[in-house]
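thoughts on these tokens:
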Amino acid sequence: MIGRAKEAKELNRLYDQHSAELVAIYGRRRVGKTYLVDETFEGRITFRHAGLSPAEESPQGLLRAQLTHFYNSLILHGMQPDKKPQDWLEAFLLLEKYLQNIDDGSRQLIFLDELPWLDSPRSGFMTAFEGFWNTWACHRKNLMVIVCGSANSWVLDKLINNHGGLYGRVTFELKLSPFSLQECEEYFQANQIKLSRYDIAQSYMIVGGIPYYLGYFDPALSLAQNVDALFFARNAKLHDEFKRLFDSVFSNPDTAKAIVRILYSKNAGFTRKELIEKLQLSDGGSLSRNLNALIASDFVIKYVPFGFSKREEHYKLIDPFCLFYLRFVDGTSRANTRYWQQNGTSQTVSTWRGYAFENLCFNHVEQIKKALGISGVISSSSAWSKRPDDIEGIQIDMLIERNDNVVNMCEIKYWSSNFVVDKSYYRTLLQRQSLLAQHLSPKQTIHSTLITSFGLTHNEYSGAFTNVITLDDLFVSA
């Protein structure tokens, strides 16, 4: 299993506890939640069940189908045939009786996958699950229940932040995030896919660190050929993934997709007030649930841009897959099945790579801090653009403002060779430093920092940079 050692260790620690455990695992679709549980507890799962997708059944027949499916899972695990449950209270009673009958004192592990799908409208599922845990399961020291789901708003609202019968009952929560660059490299190596770090970075800029998507890569193809096969070929595997990504896990997918599309339109993101105006929505719980779910799914981050007050928090789209899909795939025909191979060196793609590499760096801030030797220093990172009413415009790709009175002014350059500072660019850097200094306190020092693919060519102007960080520095554990 690649890249999940910390999570597997934590789950095994909970398994070895002599106490009842209710573990909630969440994360975006395709990130590997089920795989983590399967690999960590291979041969040790007492009972497992996965909910049926609501999209596959009419609301009227969904409850009946879910109950029948649950009953069939019990039969497959060895339960003696019994009366089929008519509601979830009866279904969980059957589970309790089954577990009691086979209890020999050893650890019993229950895995309920896609739990949000079981909670269909007016099904009474949550009432029954609360009764199962509060009345019976929490008193059995040899029982561990793992619940899992991609509908993060449901997991957060109904389980982790539950204010009803399950308040404070989740004993451990685990958010599973996408792979880092290092983990992507390990995955490719384990699957005999030979790509340079330069191309692995590009693959991350296209599909992110999503194991399911990485699994589609063909070792016999180049990166460009793989991209065409995934997005632009006839019957491309990921051509319709954007829609599936939201339709399967959001109760109101159209709103979630609308938020993502709006955030895509501005690299720095928008404030909540701006989103409300653009979406023409009321400032209520529905918007909050969607934004919180998008953040929990690693699609969006919430941050305060440099120079803004804390009341002006911005929401920024950071998911590489969504950013790539909306830029090159959304709304396009499939006429050119070799689009990426033929346009890989075009100005459009080169410009995109620049922005995409900036986003990659924001997803690897901890690796950047490690390269700077400031892993233990409290800091905040953001981009900075001076407001339009300023006389002189300025844009800084990333600022790392540190508690040790240093501000790293980061220039991010995705270059196919060593980056060269010429006289014109040297003057631009000095100008940016001067303008930034006007917004800092006298006790703060600016360190100009270059983050680039391969390194910096030394010449009479290269001394403008105090620090140089390369791709190799980003391919480390945080």
Residues 5-175 form a domain with the Rossmann fold fold (CATH 3.40.50.300). The chain has four domains: 5-175, 181-239+334-356, 243-324, 365-474. The CA atoms of residues 69 and 425 lie 65 Å apart.
